[in-house]
Every structure is written in C-alpha cells, then in structure tokens.
C-alpha cells in the first residue's frame, strides 16, 4: 500500500469527481454519451474523449445543449501512448477553464478508446502527484454489446478487464441478440463481475443518475454509502455462482447482484469453454473476524502486490485495524492502491474486515493462505 497506512486522512470534499466511460469498440459509448449530455445532471461536466477510429461525438450538439467543452485527444490511446497528455489536460483544466476566476465545471467524464485497458487511467487518478490531490475516481461504467459480447470477451483480454473493473455495466444492442446469446452473456458477466449492476439500454438512453455518483463518496459530500459501494453480498463462492444461470433475472433492467453472503472457502471454478480467458477470473469476498494488526495488513498487501499485483484486477474493502476505533477504506486496481481513508464511524454494527477481490487466476485460497501465514508469523 505504498507504506501509507500511517498517513490516513479524511476525504477531501473539494476533489473533482471523475467518471470513466469504457467499453469495447462498437459497444455504444459515443451513442450513450450523446444522450447523457442532454440531461441536467450532466450540466457543468467537462467531457474528455479519445477518438481513435470511433464515431465522433456530435460537438455542435454538446456545445449547444449543455455548454460543455469537449476536448479531443486523437493522437493515440488515452491509456498508454498519450497518457502524458491526459495528465497535462487534467492538471491544466482547473485553471484554464474558469469564469470570473472560478472553475466552471464540477465533474469530469472521460471516454476511453474501445481498445483501452482502463487500469492506467485509474492509476493516474489514484497516484499521480499532480492529479490525485485534485480528482477522485467517482465510478467506472462499461458498455457491453449483447450481440457481439461473447465473441469479444473470447478474443480480447482488454474487454474482460473493462467488465471486471466496472462499477456498472450497460448492456446495449439487446434487439440484435438471440435469446441464447443473451442468457449466456448475462451469466458470463455475473461470473466476471457479480457486484456491478447491469442496466439494459436502448439507443444509449439511460438516466444519468445511474452512471454518476457510483463511488464511495457523492459530489454533495453526504455520508459514504459503504454497503452500496462494497456490495459484498454479491460475491458468492464459485460453486453457487455455477448455478446462477438457473435463477438469473433475464429482464436485466435492474440487476445489482444476488443476495448470497461472503463465504469462507473457495469451492471450485466456473466451468466455461476452456478457450475463454475469463475462466481464470475469480470474484470473491474475504473476511477477517478480529481486528487486524497494522503490520500484518501492510505486510499482507505488500506480498500480494509484489507477487500477484498485476493479476489483482480490483480490490476494495472496509478494515478494522487494531488500535483504530474507526474503520479504514482501501481501494486498489492491480498493483496500485489509493491512499487509505478513515471513515468518521462504522456504517453498521458489523466490525469485521471485509475485502472484495476480482482477480485474474488468483484464487481466494491463495489470498487467505498468505494472510493466515503472516498473521501466524510463519512468513518472515
């Protein structure tokens, strides 16, 4: 955790929320964005798009309907080759786009290219010394083409990562998907990311409030909604998840996950076609009943990040650290962790530490064994 456990700080209410809109090529991101910018909730939003072989956003429409400024970064992939440009853009916009000396936008939405792994952008928001003090990640939204989604997930690891790290999944082009395609894709998405709500949309139409304020903290500075953000009930063991297709809500209009509790053991892997990359995706909840010594926690996370960090796609949790009366929130993507945040109070009577993981070929058993070995002092 970058040795930051001793630097816990209260969240800054002045940080600018950033929504990340991702999804594979042709899955409907631009159509969605053209619909969103009409809505009052998107007023005073700065939209940053990366046009890399995709249909252009209707700039005149945006400027006329919401007075948003659209910044096009078309020299390459926003996640890699022009990542420096993204840093410069985010660094400069707070002073470059002001009215009477005041920043005129209150949030940012970044649309990535369809070929992008979203992790580098998330890392930038979390850790860059000139970006992290000004911005906070509000949420990650991924569009998924229901007709082509299965083939896309089969062929492109980037598409799996986009789904795995998302806070919400928007299912597009349902009218082009056969029923068997629909059923198979919904089950597969539940395996990859059981906690993300799945919204079926047509022609990009969805209420903006469903894709905004998905993070722990809202733009209005209300008390953090830990239960919604963590959604630990959605993480079930693989044996139960294997039967998800038998009880799935095929309407998929509002599917925030199932209601199973966190489990203490991993019972097996999901049985997919062996050629599918996401056979190796594990989604689970890890709980610790007793307060965790700070040194044990730091060592555990350091070992995980050192040996399997790139394969931990996302982890977030609420922790009971020994000697701390208040809970600590952690949030990581691959080997990068956001600085821990101390909440003002526990959100419920439950004082257990709970962390939810989405990993690439790292089972719950591995996570648990490393923790237990450190807790028992058997690992130096």
Protein described:
- The structure is a single chain.
- This protein is an alpha/beta fold.
- It has a domain of 202 residues: Rossmann fold.
- It has twelve helices and 15 strands.
- The strands form three sheets. It has a seven-stranded parallel beta sheet with strand order 3-2-6-1-7-8-9. Strands 10, 11, 12, 13, 14 and 15 form a six-stranded antiparallel beta sheet that branches.
- A hairpin with a 2-residue loop joins strand 4 and strand 5.
- Helix 5 packs across helix 6 and helix 11 packs across helix 12.
- The longest helix is centred in the last third of the chain and has 15 residues.
- The protein starts with 15 loop residues before the first strand and ends in a 5-residue tail after the last helix.
Radius of gyration: 20 Å
Biggest sheet architecture: 7 strands, parallel
Q: Percent range for helical residues?
A: 25-40%
* Mean pLDDT level: 78
Q: Do you know the CATH topology of the domain at 9-210? A: Rossmann fold
Along the chain, the helix and strand elements come as EHEHEHEEEHEHHEHEHHHEHEEEEEH
Q: Total number of helical segments?
A: 12
User: Which strand-content bin applies to the residues?
Assistant: 15-25%
Number of strands: 15
Overall spatial form: globular
Low-confidence stretches: 1-12, 60-65, 74-83, 242-261, 263-275
